[in-house]
UniProtKB/TrEMBL annotation:
Name of the protein: Protein RER1
GO CC term, one of those recorded: plasma membrane
Entry superkingdom: Eukaryota
Family: Belongs to the RER1 family.
GO terms for biological process, alphabetical: positive regulation of protein localization to plasma membrane; protein retention in ER lumen; retrograde vesicle-mediated transport, Golgi to endoplasmic reticulum; skeletal muscle acetylcholine-gated channel clustering
Gene that this polypeptide is encoded by: RER1
InterPro entries named among the record's database cross-references: Rer1
Function: Involved in the retrieval of endoplasmic reticulum membrane proteins from the early Golgi compartment.
Subcellular location: Membrane
Keywords: Membrane, Transmembrane, Transmembrane helix
Organism: Mustela putorius furo
Amino acid sequence: MSEGDSVGDSVHGKPSVVYRFFTRLGQIYQSWLDKSTPYTAVRWLVTLGLSFVYMIRVYLLQGWYIVTYALGIYHLNLFIAFLSPKVDPSLMEDSDDGPSLPTKQNEEFRPFIRRLPEFKFWHAATKGILVAMACTFFEAFNVPVFWPILVMYFIMLFCITMKRQIKHMIKYRYIPFTHGKRTYKGKDDAGKTFAS
C-alpha cells in the first residue's frame, strides 16, 4: 500500500482537510449529545416541539403524506423496540442459561433491560423527524395520495402491533418500566449501636 492510499489521507500522509473537518464536526456533535444525556425531559420536549413544527408544516403545505406515514411507521418500530426486553423471554423459555425476567414475587430483583434504550430511542426519533422535515423541501417526495387511507392504515397497524405487544407482556409477565428495587420494612439492623 503506497503513501496516501488509506481513507482520509492526503498525498503527503497527513489527514486531509475534509477528513479533519468531518472528524471535528463529529466530535462536536458527540459532545453535545453527551451533555444532553441527563436532561431527559428537556430532550423529549424539544423532540415534541420538532414534531409539532413538522405537523404544522405538513398541514400548511397540504402534502408529503407518504413521508409522514413513513415517519409514523418508523416511530412505531422504535416504540415497540423501546417496550421490548433485550432478551426475548420466548426464546429463553426452553433454555435455562442466562438471565431472565422475574416471574414470581419472591424472585431476585432484575431491572428491565430494553432492546432500545431511552437515549437511543430519543436520538433515533429526533433524527427521523429532522430527515422527514428535510424531505418536505423536495417536491420529489410529495407523492400524491389520498391521506385518509394512510391514516386508517396507520391506526390499524398501531392497534394490531400494540395488541400483540401487550399480549406478549401479559404472557411473559413483564412491565417495561422499572421503578427500582423493592425495599422491605422490618426490624432495625441488629448491628447498629446508639450513642447515649
